[in-house]
Amino acid sequence: MKTGRITNLAMIVMGIILLILPFVYESRSLIILLTQIFIFAIFAMSYDILLGYTGIVSFGHAMFFGFGAYATGIFLQRAEPTMGVLLLALLVGVLISLVVSIIIGFLTLRLKSHFYAMLTLGLASLFLVLAEKWRTLTFGNDGFTFKIPELLRDRVHFYLLCLILMLGTFFLLKRFTNSPMGRVLQAIRENEQRVASLGFNPLYYKVIATVVAGVTATIAGSLYVMSLRFVNTSVFAIDVTLDALLMTIIGGVGTLVGPIIGAGIIEFAHEWLTSLASSYPIFERWIIFFGILYILVVIFFPKGIVGTLQSRFTKVKKVEVHRDEKDENIAG
Amino acid sequence: MTTILNVEQIETYIGQYHILQGVSFEVPKGEVTVLLGRNGAGKTTTLRSIMGLNPPSKGKIVFQNKEIQGMPTYKIAGLGIGYVPEDQGIFGELTVEENIRVAMKDNSDATMERITKVLELFPDLKKFWKKEGGHLSGGQKQMLSIARAYINENDLLLIDEPSKGLAPIVVERVMESLQDLKKSTTIVLVEQNFHMASSIGDRFYIIDDGKTVYSGEMHELNENQDLKKKYLGIA
Prior knowledge:
heterodimer, A: about 325 residues, ABC transporter involved in vitamin B12 uptake, BtuC, B: 10 strands
């Protein structure tokens, strides 16, 4: 509880600093980079609901990202790029995610985790193929550009929107995971049979987790393509899911704040390694360095950065409690 | 005497192994029925079969006049059967409070009263209210597990080896809590500790090689040294 309050306070302070930042430090590239971090933080937090809080491994989470991306792209390209159309696009994307996640959830969440992971991978690939083949609507892998509403064309406005949505998502998901339903999800992650023995239907709760994660990922997908003003089939690719998976693992699963930190580290590392490539050709193969980074994190921070810090903090507390118990026993 | 649970000739496989080969017993309402037997006799599998965790392939399980074999576990639990598994079944990454709250079926006054009572019964749980379940001692975990089953008004409690691995002084406290539970609910108890089983139990069934082989009133077993030696290895 105390740790939770510290996290909330840190998020509020960070939010205020980031809110002021564009008005005191003008840097277009930093604003763009931070905007990308906010968007991927939302996406990674959505993945954390699945992996970190419910123990569901999905290799197809990109499909929900893709629904948001295509709904936004298609609506804004075919209709006037107004805020109303954007909201309608978002609503359609969310509805598609809602329906697909419920259907997939009820049909597949009975499967054991590795079968579920493979099945979601297959389904995401199916939507990737569909997007490639339905060229009249999606223009296939070539994709298409579109305009975004006037208000959001200003990079600072868009930055502020993404920041507010990231903070909103964090506090909403935090509330969700601390609710009775969130506790059941965490219990499912630990042992599904025990949860069933308490009278809860694990399938029902897992479907709810999939829906919440899917809808959140849809919002991230929508923001992502708005930042590029372009969409193509890459939004359905496995790389997108793997990015979310790695951001969550590096930051710390089941912490919500971990995926935000993970998104920050990966996006910054990506930017930095890419910029080094102009001076040192070896950094053109930046993916190799990413691989090394992942291996190092898994070795030295097996629970992710936030998870490992929390464990160390708990260990210190545990030693103190045991010392107190020992003193009490001696006294008694 | 009303029978709350009737298990009739159940047979259960775990993988290719035929673990239960004909277990039958009746549980009278308001009593403590003890399942006894050597290690590997099939006592835990019997409880798991009742809960639907290892569903039986043959036989009938009737709970309050309703056949429950083949029903999903959550529905069986929803009918009013609480289960305290052998490994205590607590959620190690949740705090004591969260472990209790996750089990609460409602926020009624009755449930709140039961929580207050359970904290009086197990003051350690109050002391470590915000501590993660995984960091509790074996005895505290057992107390938490029993507390969690107690907070809902279950008609039947299945308790699997509550004294396993506990220090004698902790076993005494667990026994006291079970004596208290006995006043308000029907219990099926699997227990290796004969002292605990005989002091709490009203009747017993002996399971051997996956079959019920003997049953009777608890006092009969206390007096029958041959039976104790033959099936329980107690001289």
